[in-house]
Structure formats: structure tokens, C-alpha cells
Amino acid sequence: MAEFKLVPLADRVVVDPIEQDEVTASGIVLPETAKEKPQRGKILAAGPGKMVEGERVAMDVKVGDIVIFDKWGGKEIKIDDKKYLIINESDILAKLAD
User: Fold this and answer.
1) Which of 7, 15, 20, 42 is surrounded by the most beta carbons within 10 Å?
2) Which of 98, 85, 95 lies closest to 45, judged by CA?
């Protein structure tokens, strides 16, 4: 994968949201309006961490991690017709173990 062109600052990350299935287990097709907002995604870019008392605090997540994040966290952006989220590290609830 080529280097991602968007560079987040401080303790922010750029996430590629993983969309949920459009069909339920029972076979019902969900319209766009009925879908849950994605809460899982892959980190494409990560900032260097936030500054605390003049020291840089390292991030607990890195590029490539699959994370679970707060449902309403972050800011949605669109680049080349693709939607991404920029979220603060504090909005990340967990990451999937390697």
C-alpha cells in the first residue's frame, strides 16, 4: 500500500471505517438509512502523539491496527470519493489483538 497522503497531528489517527454487512443474518437487506455508523476501522495514518508538560506521549495504536472507536467520535472527511474518519486517540475504545 502506498503511503497515505493525509498526515494527522498530535494524538489523532486517520481511520478507514469498516462498513457493516448490508444483509442481516436472516437475509433482510438494510437500506443506507438503517445502517449503524461504523465503529470499527483500520488505522491508515497516525500522528506522533500529544505533548504533555513538554514531552511527547507515544500513541498506543499504530498504522495497520484494527480499532473499535466511539460511535460518534471523529470527523468524517472525503478524499477521492472515499470516506475516512479523523479521530482522537481518546475516542479509540480498543484494538484487536495481533
Assistant:
1) 15
2) 85
Indicate left, alpha or beta for 12 from its phi (over 0: left) and psi (-120 to 50: alpha): beta
Q: Tell me the whole-structure pTM to 2 decimals.
A: 0.78
**DSSP for 8-76, written as a single string:** --TTEEEEEE-PPPSB-TTSPBPPGGGSPPP-EEEEEEE----EETTEEPPPS--TT-EEEE-TT-SEE
**Is the pLDDT confidence value at 1 over 50?**
no
Q: What is the tally of structural domains in the chain?
A: 1
Does residue 54 belong to any structural domain of this protein? yes
Taking residues 5-12, report their average pLDDT. 91
